[in-house]
Every structure is written in C-alpha cells, then in structure tokens.
Amino acid sequence: MSNKIKKQSLLGKTPERKKPTQAKRQRPSNQQQARAQVAQQTAPEVELKKSKTRWYALAAVVLILLITPKPMLITYEKLGMVSQSVFWPGVFGYGANLFDSSLSPRADLSRNTIYLCQDKHKPDTCQKYRVTEQSGFIAAMKKLLID
After folding, report:
1. How does DSSP classify residue 94?
2. pTM
3. Which of 13, 20, 68, 115 counts the most CB atoms within 10 A of its CB?
C-alpha cells in the first residue's frame, strides 16, 4: 500500500516525537466490579455468622454450668461423731454421691438430715445423720484438692 510520508516544517525541523504511551490499565468491567462488591459484602456476613455461633456456644456452656448441680461440703454428725464430706446431689435427685464414702446417700437438706445406706432398696440398712453445716462449691473443691 502506500508509505506514510513524514511531514517537515518549513524551517527543517522534524516533527515532534510523540511521548511513548504508558500501558493503560484496563478498568474493571461492570461484572468485575459487581463481583468485588459481592465479595466484600459476603465477607462480613461470614465473620458475623462465626461470631454468632461462638456466642451461642458460649451461652450454651454457661447455661449448662448454671443448670448442673454443684458439689457442696457438708458436715454431719451422729452420737458425737462429726464428719465432713463432699456431697454431690446428682441430677434431679438421681446419682447422689458422697465422694469419700462407699455408702449411698439420701439427703433431705431442707430438714438438715442425710441418710447413709449400704443398700438403697433396704431401708433398715440406712443410718440417719444430722447435717450441721453446709458449705458451697469453692469449699468442696478445696476439700477435694487438699485431701
């Protein structure tokens, strides 16, 4: 085809050279912008979901700790013999336990009595004790750890 002719000015000057063009960055298309916005919006939702599940799990653990019965330190006596034991009341009265005894307890702490039985099914094997003092969870843990 035809050759391009370079134009010269009248005084013999050469035409100004064009500055080399910098490589233009392509602007993100509308689709790419939309994807970026969606990604930014979903990221906080994921973090929000994670934090909500953590709070729910923490609330469940705290609720379980509040509902479950805690051991207590009781002091009981019969005929001048005084003893201290860590008593766990069990869940809804089932599974009550004295940690330092093989006897099975039946406690009525509102009346300050505890029955220690060799066999739960035979009431004549039970001994009645009078509860003189009840201490809380921290005292029971100290007793368990020290003894």
Report:
1. B
2. 0.57
3. 115
